[in-house]
């Protein structure tokens, strides 16, 4: 064995397990025997040596593995055959530690969010591959698609990153990817030669730790039956990977000075200090970290890290969506029927690139199929699908307990809103009981019961089945009409204005809540909430929202005069899309003639969102920063799909909107958008029909001669109004 630390630990453990009388006999035999042709250890040096001294003498006289061989021989000669066998076994175990030392509770099964007690799904039977791309740290430049096994692949300079940050939006698959990495590593299918130990740290659970801990304590918690192996683990940190899942859920500030950080694995500190020490590499600096987070927490995380690699989970490709449907339904006929319906609905199919939304859509469609309902009832917004999912659980077949469910629903909304404001995602039993959520009919399918270790005791805490559901219920809290029964119950104050003002000042943690707020004001959502769930949405909220939007025009959305009256943030459009109200959208966008979207990579859903606004906007601009220089793009098409997966060209959705006779778009710039001759057919069709488009810039694209020819032929068409083609 080459690792001296491993040998030292093995010998120390073997000697520590000897009775005092056996230890004396061991030293006596050792001083009278010639092993390995190196003579015997002098009796004088052994006579007063304790167990640690004896271990050091063994390592001094006999190099490397020979010290272990000598110890086994002495054990055998003094008739300690059990000790000899155990030491021999421990040595072999150390050589194959990846097989024998594994964190407990490996995630072999997962629970569907609406699963009944005892119902589980094997992770490997449900897991579907996700698109992951490397991104150069904190920039918009992306390289090729990668897989889980290349996250730690050396870069072009041969440098292997010690820290990989896996970024992804809500519900995009960060946690299940983390668990899949754990499971595949444990099966010897992933990082077999790279990591001997992989440990999963749940950030949600870290928030609960009140007493001081050490890195060693955190490892021991996952390996409770391998206490003798902890020194082996700590002795080779370059073979150790920590998966830290859900950084955005941590409530700590991480503003600690370097003097407060720890450098020793057994040093006990508050959990925020331990995590900061891992992030800043003051403890176990040779170890590796894989950290998952939502984009909103990237800036906070970036202050703790150096030389990290960023990778982004982009969701399911088209082929992967189909695979997920078949894995979910496990009924070939239902899977084909559901997927065919979704595939023919461009909006629903695009929404399915987000795994959590794909799961909700599959769940809703499965319930509709089993009840013989028309699949066309499915919504075309994310909020609408959450409402349908909610209604399917509130009113299962044969249920007539709507009043009870309404009370439980309001309790869930209050719990969610309180948690959003307090940045809290785990709730105590007392809070659950206070809101009446401990009753049998209290919609338990929206809450998970979690048993956490707290000091020497265990504690039962509750969380929403997914963070996005907490954000959905928090939004619902603000739009439901007042209920006298909920007054004076310690619930947060219903003040939409305060919510929107805080969202305007710092959008990070309120972003999805406000997007759901818009979506719940959708006419279909209002109708479904009242008819299917029995809850009315306050009509006043929509006017409050419009007033806030009009106020924001003069503050947050102000930009230099050259870009007068410009909307700058794509999130505004995602929100407006959810409301699906043409008049509301028209009034919100009325003063604006140009859109500027900065530093964004457009997802397929973003393209659909933007395509719905071309009727009201005259110019669209995507402003981005490249690695070499500032460049201005006036639209950028998503690179998140492979060309061979696309049924249509890259500009298909854009062109569909431009063909609308009511479209007001006059100027369109498509510079640096990787457009090829394939897209020119769609663009040529636009030039022949659009009565508004007067300027089209196609610079720095690979149009080829055939593409240019198609555009030139379109210019000759009598209906073409284009004045400038660049």
Q: How many strands in all?
A: 19
Domain count: the total is: 5
Spatial order of the strands forming the largest sheet: 4-3-9-5-8-7-6
Shape: elongated
Average pLDDT confidence is 77
Low-confidence runs (pLDDT<50, min 5 residues)? 96-104, 137-143, 397-404, 484-489, 554-568, 623-646
Briefly note the structural class of the backbone.
Answer: alpha/beta
What's the layout of helices and strands?
Layout: H1 4-16, H2 20-32, H3 43-47, H4 51-61, H5 65-77, H6 81-95, H7 97-100, E1 109-110, E2 121-122, H8 123-126, E3 131-135, E4 142-146, E5 163-167, H9 174-186, E6 197-202, H10 203-206, H11 215-222, H12 230-235, E7 240-245, H13 271-279, E8 288-293, H14 298-302, E9 309-315, H15 318-329, H16 332-343, H17 346-351, H18 355-370, H19 382-394, H20 402-421, E10 427-428, H21 429-434, E11 447-454, E12 457-464, H22 467-479, H23 496-505, H24 511-520, H25 523-533, H26 540-552, E13 566-567, H27 570-579, H28 582-589, E14 594-598, H29 604-611, E15 619-625, E16 630-633, H30 652-658, E17 667-669, H31 677-689, E18 695-697, H32 704-715, E19 724-725
